[in-house]
User: Which sequence fits this backbone?
């Protein structure tokens, strides 16, 4: 039996040395050390041995098992290492190759325009304020000198939710809210950008949802000349230092007197072309001196305080500045269009 055990050991070690796959090692382990393996079969015959032979053979059998097990573990570790090296070599990354560029996003054109306007007015001492898009009839109309059944309400075809709730038609309610909340009648100098909503048919120049930025300055001794100076600086910043402005009389219920502002056409430099309809001027925004009724409803004494207000549409400004002829382009999310105005 001793010779059998030594023969099994030698045979197993030879097969282990020849194995070149880890699966082969598992098969060898089962063939020699498993329940039906060669070593196990030999050990089952130990019952026929004398009491003196059993300890000797048992010791040899244990040594054979330990030797085969150690050889299997050593070879398995070696093959695992070789497999890992092969895998690393096969999956090697050439770090000298240039990486794949990841396209970066950017602000939407309207967002960029709004931020540019905000930066300009913040630099002139204005604050940026916000307000609700679902507004009350009072703040959207009545607090702005548009009482019930006022004919000027027809100028702003409104999305009503209830008789007293609506989607705001302009951002002027933020001005009314800000003044009314200012119980100490401190000076107010603010702009309020945001979305507004009107029941309009979408086409190249109209949208049922669009953006507005309105400005307000209320203090003692605020004059129309202050408004003109602010708007002149705005026009030159947005459209170029050579832009000229003109103010034309107009009507808005919440300002008196009211004006509309034109800028000189940058295409023809005021000489007249198809863009400006041969006038040399392009309308850009409206404004005026805050109506005394609006001041009074907000808690300001119109005999002591005065102010100016103005409103503009960032879509229109962007269209004029970049030569865009369809307002719907801003809302289609067409990357081909948006990429043209992406600022790195």
Assistant:
């Amino acid at each position: 039996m001793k010779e059998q055990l030594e023969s099994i050991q030698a045979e197993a070690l030879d097969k282990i040395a020849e194995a070149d796959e880890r699966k082969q090692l598992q098969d060898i382990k089962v063939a020699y050390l498993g329940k039906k393996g060669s070593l196990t079969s030999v050990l089952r015959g130990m019952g026929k041995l004398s009491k003196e032979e059993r300890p000797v053979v048992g010791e040899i059998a244990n040594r054979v098992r330990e030797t085969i097990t150690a050889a299997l573990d050593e070879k398995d570790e070696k093959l695992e290492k070789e497999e890992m090296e092969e895998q690393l070599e096969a999956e090697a990354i050439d770090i000298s190759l240039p990486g794949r560029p990841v396209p970066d996003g950017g602000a939407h054109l309207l967002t960029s325009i709004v931020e540019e306007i905000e930066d300009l007015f913040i630099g002139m001492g204005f604050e940026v304020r916000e307000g609700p898009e679902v507004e009350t009839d009072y703040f959207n109309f009545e607090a702005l000198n548009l009482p019930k059944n006022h004919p000027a309400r027809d100028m702003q075809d409104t999305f009503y939710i209830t008789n007293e709730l609506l989607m705001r038609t302009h951002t002027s309610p933020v001005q009314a809210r800000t003044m009314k909340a200012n119980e100490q009648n401190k000076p107010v100098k603010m702009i309020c950008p945001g979305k507004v909503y009107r029941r309009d048919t979408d086409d190249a120049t109209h949208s049922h949802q669009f953006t507005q930025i309105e400005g307000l300055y209320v203090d003692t001794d605020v004059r129309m000349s202050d408004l003109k100076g602010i708007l002149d600086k705005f026009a030159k910043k947005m459209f170029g230092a050579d832009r000229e402005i003109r103010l034309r009389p107009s009507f808005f219920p919440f300002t008196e007197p009211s004006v509309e502002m034109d800028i000189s056409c940058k295409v023809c430099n005021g000489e007249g072309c198809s863009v400006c309809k041969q006038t040399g001027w392009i309308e850009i925004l409206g404004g005026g001196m805050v109506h005394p009724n609006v001041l009074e409803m907000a808690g300001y004494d119109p005999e002591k305080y005065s102010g100016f207000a103005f409103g503009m549409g960032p879509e229109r400004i962007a269209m004029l500045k970049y030569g865009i002829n369809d307002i719907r382009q801003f809302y289609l999310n067409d990357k081909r269009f948006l990429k043209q105005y992406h600022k790195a």
